[in-house]
Amino acid sequence: MKTIFEKIRDKEIPSYMVYEDDLVMAFLDITQATKGHTLIVSKEPYKDYLNTPDDVLKHMAVVSKKVMAALSSLYQPLGFNVLNNLGEAAGQTVFHVHFHIIPRYTNHDVTFEFHPKTSTPKETFIEIHQSLKSALS
Ligand code: 5GP
Question: Which of 46, 58, 85, 98 has the lowest CB atom count within 10 Å?
Fold first, then answer.
């Protein structure tokens, strides 16, 4: 079954498409978190970030920059959030890889809440540091 974004790609459902090439498309999110909220989406339906080939991810980053530059000159936001939700627990609802480009006009038009554990013990940092560093080497 096609994802909703494949249906948009194939023009089976309408969208406000702003950019397309062989690998990537960009269209306005139906829920405008802020003015200009745009989705950068792969043409192929890779289900999430971890399952997307590097060349496609790199191109999605380049197109994100292009879209942010255009939004900057059009609407002069104060900044942007570039967001990828990976997995249901992280808020992913469409399992077809995409980045959210969210222009920010004030400090409080969007909220992302972190709940940091300020009391993380040193041994935990050491354990994570050693495991992750070695997994990456
Ligand atoms: P996720 O929750 O997976 O990170 O983001 C999915 C995004 O897709 C949501 O922000 C949602 O508003 C957007 N979306 C879902 N259905 C449609 C649609 O039919 N058209 C457009 N333009 N955006 C959609």
Answer: 58
Question: Residue 34 is which amino acid?
Answer: T
Q: What is the pLDDT of residues 4-18, one digit of tens each?
A: 999 999 999 999 999
The two tokens of residue 92 are: 């992913």
Q: Which of 37, 59, 96, 98 is catalytic?
A: 98
Identify whether 98 is a catalytic site residue.
Answer: yes
Query: Which residues are bridge partners to 28 per DSSP?
Result: 38
- Residue written as tokens 């890889």? 97
Cα of 19 to ligand 1 centre, how many Å?
17
Alpha carbons 110 and 104: distance in angstroms, whole number: 8
Reading the block at residue 133, the tokens are 């560093």
